[in-house]
Every structure is written in C-alpha cells, then in structure tokens.
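Run log // design_07
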C-alpha cells in the first residue's frame, strides 16, 4: 500500500486557494499511484484557531464535492484537515474521502489548552481500513499522548497516522515520542506536518515515517513543500 504525506504550506484562511493547492498535490500522488494521500492539520484553512469560527465548514459544504469526485474518478483516498461546525461548537477534523463511499470525519479528541477557547473535542476514534491495513488517525497534540496511541492499538491499528501543525519544539518532542510508540506497540507511525507561518508560530515540516521497530525510514526537510511516499506492507 502506498501512502503519500503531503507537506504543504497552506494559505492563511483562503479556502479556494487551498483547494487548488490540495488538488495539485493530489494530482502528483495519482501520478505516483498512491493509494492514500494525507495532508497536515487544518490544511484546508491553515492552522488558524482565531479564524476557525468564520472558516468552519459543515459536512455537506459543496466546496468539498471536488475531493469526492477526484477520489471516485482516480480511486485515491484523500485525508485533509478542516475546522467543522456541529451544533455545540467547532471541531478540528480530518475529512476522509474514499472512492465510492460517503465522506468520513475524524475529529481531534484531545485538545491542547491553547485550543480550548476555540474548539471542542471529538468523542470517538475512527479507523480507516484500506488494502487490508488498519489506519488510526491522530491530530497533532493528541498524537503525543500515549493514551491515544494505546487506544489505537486496542482497535488493531497497523498504522498510527499523525496529521500535525508543529513548530520546531513540537517536532523535537515528536522525534522522541514516535519511535518509542512504534517500537512499543509494534506499529508504523507516519507524521505529516505543514511548513511556513501559521497562527503565532513557524511550522517546520520534517514529515517522517518510523517502522514497527522504531527505526526512522524517511524524513523531509523543514521548509519545502514535498510529497513523501512510503510503501507499507500488509
């Protein structure tokens, strides 16, 4: 199974431009015969908590239709980030488009204290099953909490997939935490980060993959938009 991690630089609060940006990288992934392409946290708006109220999208937002159409036509699964609006607040969500299936939504369950004035927490762990492989999404802060990874393992995850927006200090924590989780739980850990300024920090890329032995397989640089493609065995 081929997974592509799209390390991109989103445009602050500009959903139309970010849709075009996503489609550009999806086209590249299709050329490489990728089965699943994954984008960073809140990739469709940029990680901008203070703008989340005005940018939040409903599950039936027509602007999302283009991703379902591409998924259906090209047979590629797409996971991107967006703030989603529900009755009692706004969630940090991963929108998952699968060919010929309804869109699925996974929402961040554990928020950093800085996020709580803007967002509410999700309440369930979604598992994406593809090519016989079980994939557990995680979104930024919660991916550094061991309890979240343990729950994913209880649900028989083969891959722990972290979509993040992290500055250098956060990346340093991830580089210490993820190899331990991979080794202890015997799962692949994939992390996709953005690059460029967002909110009040510089997101420093370095998207990476660790195998089941905790060994670093591949890592991107800290400042360029790139696509990291990894083939994960069943």
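design_07 sequence
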């Amino acid at each position: 199974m081929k997974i592509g991690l799209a390390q991109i630089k989103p445009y602050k609060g500009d959903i139309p431009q970010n849709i075009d940006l996503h489609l550009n990288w999806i086209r590249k992934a299709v050329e490489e015969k990728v089965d699943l392409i994954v984008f960073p946290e809140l990739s469709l708006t940029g990680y901008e908590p203070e703008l989340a109220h005005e940018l939040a999208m409903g599950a039936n937002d027509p602007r999302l239709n283009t991703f379902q159409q591409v998924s259906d036509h090209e047979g590629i699964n797409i996971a991107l980030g967006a703030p989603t609006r529900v009755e009692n607040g706004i969630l940090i969500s991963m929108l998952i488009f699968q060919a010929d299936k309804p869109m699925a939504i996974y929402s961040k369950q554990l928020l950093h204290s800085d996020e709580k004035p803007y967002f509410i927490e999700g309440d369930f762990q979604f598992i994406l099953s593809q090519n016989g492989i079980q994939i557990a999404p995680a979104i930024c802060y919660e991916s550094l909490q061991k309890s979240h990874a343990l729950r994913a393992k209880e649900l028989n995850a083969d891959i722990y997939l972290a979509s993040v927006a992290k500055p250098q200090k956060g990346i340093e924590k991830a580089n210490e935490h993820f190899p331990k989780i991979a080794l202890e739980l015997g799962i692949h850990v994939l992390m996709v980060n953005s690059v460029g300024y967002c909110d009040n920090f510089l997101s420093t890329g370095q998207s990476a993959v660790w195998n089941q032995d905790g060994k670093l397989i591949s890592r991107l640089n800290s400042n360029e938009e790139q696509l990291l493609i990894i083939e994960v065995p069943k």
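The mean pLDDT is 97.
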